[in-house]
UniProtKB/TrEMBL annotation:
This is Peroxidase. It comes from Mycena sanguinolenta. Belongs to the peroxidase family. Residues 25-347 form the Plant heme peroxidase family profile domain. One of its GO terms (biological process) is hydrogen peroxide catabolic process. One of its GO terms (molecular function) is heme binding.
């Protein structure tokens, strides 16, 4: 995609900036894989719950929780009428209270997402559930998962429909068909999901007994011996007859759902067949999975993408988000007298630190001129379980988190970057900047009770149809939207300098963050920076 695109820029960052500089907190939380937020030696793993949520279940995050969350949220999908799917309806107490969502993983995971994830106008709660599952898989040894954004959060709970272990095979086949998966895909999805975690005694006393194991204080009977790692051991141990999977060899055969799902007549011959045609397609799914980690990983990657992208039929997802090779980030313009403060960093994807590298930024202005500055190393980040790294440079060479001063009259129209003599200007388009309106440092406080004068600097000649403050609103079911507070155009121009005039609005909510929006030639633009009144200085007359 072409930068800037506010939604794709935000989704790309949430998906790829996972550890280190400018990283999102979600991924930082779930490493290493055997970490469980509520203590060690519990036998639980964050990843499993996150995956199960996407698939079916949500708990306070162990890795397993992050994954199950996604499954349980998705499993309400009805492929015939297009309702349900991955829409964060699992956050509703009514869904969590259902027997089909037994366990504490869902509540735990939602708590984590609300605490740590970025939920905003561009990234929904359900996008975060998908991201949590994806991060869990990728960081615990799993394959890379293609990510699309744009999920829409449900306003009310979905109809029930998460499969339960005591149901018979026919019910499970019908349930997965409703969710949009064939029988073969069902076998795959269960064998892929049950690579993490296990069944906990507290919530499933009819499946798992008290274990009296000091290294497994929560009495979790695991699906395989490597329950914090994505691997094919769940299939391998099943095929080799050593499995301890509580849904295969549980003492209560009624709840041995994995056994019914994995079992196929062909497998009776697995020992001979496996020797003769290893990994061949004629083998059953668990058999092929057991034979080849590659087959397992690639099949699971495809099924997980299908699972994460199962959304209500009125939702349109973005294209798969791939990382921009060169990406400006946190770009802000602020007017300070005759100076434009240009804040920001640039991320160079798939590169590591190299003290000999030179990175510079070029910019075009309104008067046909150009400028350039050398950028300074700001930090490193990594992604996808450490598979990719990125290096960041700040627009201000000596203070990477500070700004570069530009001439306000000349302004700035677009950026480009030169990395070791190689130009990146988005194939000639440049990285467009909007300097038609921005926050002005003349904003200040006056009066008693105190009022904030919020000044927006509007570039002369730009003639916006509207200029407004933007305020994020969270509704009663935690969905974020933006409300617009129009600024009345000044009756007489108030000059900020030779190029900018001020539009002002008085605000009284001291700690509310406001962004700025403007409609210019029928297109709406927003600033990425927000401002709070408590940080304004007193107005000159008040000093
Ligand atoms: C017929 C279908 C399925 C049934 C009956 C089933 C049943 C169960 C049960 C009873 C548990 C134990 C939960 C607990 O102790 O809190 C569990 C855990 C889990 N399930 Fe499934 N499951 C099914 C399909 C799936 C699918 C499709 C996925 C994901 C793709 C998945 C992912 C997980 C994960 C990751 C856990 C571990 C949770 C943890 O350790 O916290 N399951 N499943």
């Amino acid at each position: 995609y072409i930068w800037p695109s506010p939604q794709l820029d935000a989704l790309e960052a949430a998906r790829f900036d996972q550890q280190g500089f400018n990283a999102n907190f979600l991924a930082g939380f779930i490493q290493p894989c055997d970490t469980f937020q509520f203590g060690s030696d519990t036998g639980r793993a964050n990843a499993a719950d996150w995956i199960r949520t996407v698939g079916f279940y949500l708990a306070f995050p162990h890795w397993a929780d992050l994954f199950t969350e996604a499954y349980h949220d998705m499993a309400t999908h009805n492929s015939t009428d297009g309702t349900g799917g991955l829409d964060a309806s699992i956050r509703f107490a009514e869904e969590q209270a259902r027997v089909e969502n037994a366990g504490d993983g869902f509540d735990n995971t939602m708590t984590l997402i609300f605490l740590l994830a970025i939920v905003n106008r561009y990234i929904s709660i359900s996008d975060n559930i998908a991201l949590a599952a994806l991060i869990a898989i990728e960081n615990c040894g799993g394959p890379e998962i293609a990510f699309r954004g744009g999920r829409v959060d449900a306003a009310v709970p979905n109809a029930p429909g998460v499969p339960e272990p005591q149901q018979d095979l026919a019910s499970h086949i019908a349930s997965f068909a409703r969710q949009g998966f064939t029988q073969t895909e069902m076998i795959g999805l269960v064998a892929c999901g049950h690579t993490f975690g296990g069944v906990q005694h507290d919530f499933f006393p009819d499946i798992v007994n008290v274990l009296n194991d000091t290294s497994d204080t929560e009495d979790v009977a695991h699906f395989d011996t490597t329950f914090v790692t994505f691997d094919n051991n769940v299939a391998l141990e099943y095929i080799s007859g050593t499995t301890q999977n509580p849904l295969v060899v549980g003492f209560n055969d009624t709840t041995n759902s994995d056994k019914r799902i994995f079992w196929q007549r062909r497998e009776r011959h697995y020992a001979i067949v496996r020797l003769l045609i290893r990994g061949a397609n004629t083998l059953s799914m668990p058999c092929r999975f057991a034979n080849s980690l590659d087959v397992y990983a690639s099949t699971c990657a495809n099924l997980f993408v299908r699972m994460l992208d199962t959304v209500p039929s009125n939702v349109t997802l973005t294209d798969v988000i791939t990382p921009l090779p060169v990406k400006p980030s946190n770009v802000e313009l602020i007017l300070d007298g005759n100076t434009l403060q240009l804040w920001g960093q640039v991320r160079l994807w798939n590169m590591t630190e190299d003290p000999t590298r030179t990175v510079s930024m070029l910019w075009d202005n309104h008067i046909g001129g150009t400028g350039n500055a050398t950028l300074g190393f700001a930090g490193l980040s990594s992604s996808t379980g450490g598979k990719y790294s990125a290096v960041w440079y700040g627009f201000n060479a000596t203070s990477p988190l500070s700004f570069l001063s530009l001439d306000a009259i000349a302004g700035v129209t677009s950026l480009s970057f030169v990395v070791d003599n190689e130009l990146d200007d988005q194939d000639g388009l440049g990285f467009a900047l909007q300097d038609g309106f921005m926050f002005s440092q003349t904003s200040c406080l006056f009066g008693d009770p105190v009022v904030g004068k919020f000044d927006v600097a509007v570039r002369n000649g730009v003639n916006p149809t509207r200029v407004y403050l933007e305020q994020s609103i969270t509704d009663s079911v935690q969905r974020v939207s933006v409300s617009e507070i129009d600024i009345v155009p000044p009756s007489e121009p108030i000059a900020a300098n030779a190029a900018y005039s001020l539009w002002s609005i008085n605000i009284t909510e001291a700690t509310t963050s406001y962004g700025i929006g403007a409609e210019i030639d029928g297109v709406k633009y927003s600033t990425t920076d927000t401002h709070v009144m408590v940080l304004f200085p007193p107005c000159p007359a008040e000093k």
